[in-house]
Amino acid sequence: MEITMDLVKALRERTAAGMTDCKKALEETGGELEKAQEYLVRKGLAKMKEKGKEALEGLVFAYVHTGGRIGVLVEVNSNTDFVARTDDFKQFVEDVALQIAAMNPLYISRDHVPAADMARLREGYLEEVAQLTKPQAVLDKIVDGKVAKWLQETCLLEQPFIKDDTTTLEKLRGGLITKTGENIQVRRFVRYALGEKV
Fold it and tell me: How confident is the model at residue 54, as a pLDDT?
């Protein structure tokens, strides 16, 4: 198949890779646009066209735990449907759903915790440590530690990963962003447990 300039431009538009890299990718894949895009992603040559571009593609994934007692619906977004169809992306989404089912997080990340809730939490911890006879600076550090521990326990991306507690979903997400060159975001989730009060 002839590699036309229009084909090279179309691939460049999709991946923001250099013209020479796009031409080579098309030559290597017989002029097939999808395969050439995959080739550039594998080689680390595809870039995000806009770093701030909103991620609106992706997957909604449903997971029901064995026995049907716990169910999870999660939406994870990427910039392109091409990345959303890759095995790496699908595996990440599945891992996110498993984490939610197992660990019952309340928020996606600390950025999603409402300021009023954080203020109440700090206030509660300050009352808890008030009877300790220590300088205020030390008490503040104790409270900071308690808040950090609470965030790690309740924020999905900060929890130790259930399959490998030496890492977190945030680190896995960062690795996927580096690999794909796209903005990967856990957008929302809901977890159902049989018999729990609404």
Answer: 66
From residue 113, how far is each of 149, 155, 168 by CA, in Å?
14, 9, 18
Cα 48 to chain centroid, rounded: 16
As a whole number of angstroms, the distance between CA 179 and CA 45 comes to 10
Q: What is the pLDDT of residue 47?
A: 57
- pLDDT at residue 46, as a whole number: 67
Side-chain-side CA neighbours of 131 within 13 Å: the count stands at 2
What is the CATH code of the structural domain delimited by 5-42? 1.10.8.10
Pairing of strands 164-168, 160-161: antiparallel
Level-2 CATH architecture, domain 57-110+155-193: 2-Layer Sandwich (3.30)
pLDDT given for residue 7 in this prediction: 87
Residue 188 · residue 75 · CB < 8 Å: yes
For the chain of 198 residues, list the mean pLDDT of each consecutive stretch of 10. 84 80 89 83 61 74 91 94 93 97 94 89 86 83 91 94 94 90 92 83
- Can you read off the two tokens belonging to residue 181? 């060159």
DSSP 1-41: ----HHHHHHHHHHH---HHHHHHHHHHTTT-HHHHHHHHH
Please give the order of strands across the beta sheet that includes 70-78.
57-64, 70-78, 185-193
Give the start-to-end residue ranges of the domains of the chain.
5-42, 57-110+155-193, 114-153
